Amino acid sequence: MSHLVEELRERKTLDDQGLKALLESDDQSLEEDLFRNAREVAVAQFGREIWLRALIEWSNVCRNDCYYCGIRRSNQTLPRYSLTPNEILSSCDQAWKLGLRTFVLQGGENPAAAEALAPTVAEMRASWPEAAITLSLGELPFETYALLRRSGANRYLLRHETASPAHYSRLHPASMQLEHRLACLQELQRLGYRTGMGMMVGSPFQTTGDLIADIRLIEQVQPGMIGLGPFIPHPDTPLGSYPAGSATLTLRLYAILRLMLPQAWIPSTTALSTLHPDGRKAGILAGANVVMPNFTPASHRGDYALYAGKSAPAVEAEENLKLLIQEIESIGYHV
Ligand code: 5AD
């Protein structure tokens, strides 16, 4: 076994030089070693079990103007929607009946609408007391985080996107600050949410040093969940002509983070499977242990266009889930 991989697995950390080598090496056998070890650690922790989360993209209305994101405020080509409480509840109902036990409500950053979501969250909590309710609604006033927590939400995903302030300012308008996002993450943890963070891999201007800063931040925060996927350009955004991030580099990051945080929940993301047809399976084989099938009502799925070509399954949620389970079983895992 490569000594770098061995050291990372044993000590759950590695110096910058070692991380750089793991991220940049073109040694195929080192990469295979990294993936195999990450997979072994994931299997030791979770068995060959993949956890499903029902993703409900509740609204594409967003006050932010991130330079990479297709649902940014300035993109006027996009029809905007928000699901009604009944649509949200019926998506949950469908997911619950198909055996899913975690609902993820994700949407653009819209504080007033997020606050207005509290009664729906409370209704979800009352209807499915055993379900986990995950929110992913961006940076909100702290009292809204508290309100949603009291209403029954227990997890929150807020990607930090990049841990380098200089890089952050090239991806976001000046009104957005990395510092504030990190303060939100801290507050979410304080309120008792299980929190998730993460970054885009291969976003424009990103260096290996930036990725190492991301790894260090995640190592320091020790989040319960880590969401990361490749950058994929969206033509109607300022960064729409930059190349997509690399699938391989994304997989290496799954593996490195799995070895550092053996207990973290790491989804094999939609962006990865958009980039590569076998991306989802490859993610699992590099240490990911979560998959998030889409339960957004079919009539709106196409409008949650974060990036170009985002796979919006043509088939209904139930059929899509069946295919997903087959895919997971084809590599010897189960749900
Ligand atoms: N490519 C890949 N991921 C993107 N996201 C937004 N835009 C893109 C893009 N062009 C990701 C961000 C955000 C999450 C909801 O989607 O990381 O946090």
What key attributes describe this structure?
alpha/beta; six-stranded parallel sheet; about 325 residues; TIM Barrel; 10 strands; binds 5'-deoxyadenosine; two-stranded parallel sheet; about 10% strand; globular
What secondary-structure arrangement, pairings included, does this model have?
Blueprint: H1 3-11, H2 16-24, H3 28-46, E1 51-52, E2 54-59, H4 85-97, E3 102-107, H5 111-116, H6 118-127, E4 132-136, H7 142-150, E5 155-157, H8 165-171, H9 178-190, E6 194-197, E7 200-201, H10 208-221, E8 225-226, E9 229-230, H11 247-260, H12 270-275, H13 279-285, E10 290-291, H14 298-301, H15 317-330
Parallel strand pairs: 1-10, 2-3, 3-4, 4-5, 5-6, 6-8, 7-9
Helix pairs in contact: 2-11, 3-11
Bound molecules: 5'-deoxyadenosine (5AD).
Reported for the largest beta sheet, the result is:
6 strands, parallel
| C-alpha Rg (nearest Å) | 19 Å
Estimate percent helicity: 40-55%
Question: Shape from CA axes?
Answer: globular
User: First CA to last CA: what distance?
Assistant: 30 Å
Poorly predicted parts = none
CATH class (first level) name of the domain at 48-222 and 233-243 and 289-330: Alpha Beta
The CATH superfamily of the domain at 48-222 and 233-243 and 289-330 appears as Aldolase class I
Strand-pairing-aware structural class: alpha/beta
* Named CATH topology of the domain at 48-222 and 233-243 and 289-330: TIM Barrel
CATH architecture of the domain at 48-222 and 233-243 and 289-330: Alpha-Beta Barrel
Order of helices and strands: HHHEEHEHHEHEHHEEHEEHHHEHH
Amount of beta strand: 5-15%
Count of discrete alpha- or pi-helical segments spanning 4 or more residues: 15
Small-molecule binders: 5'-deoxyadenosine
Number of strands: 10
Strand line-up in the sheet with most strands: 2-3-4-5-6-8
- Mean model confidence by pLDDT: 96
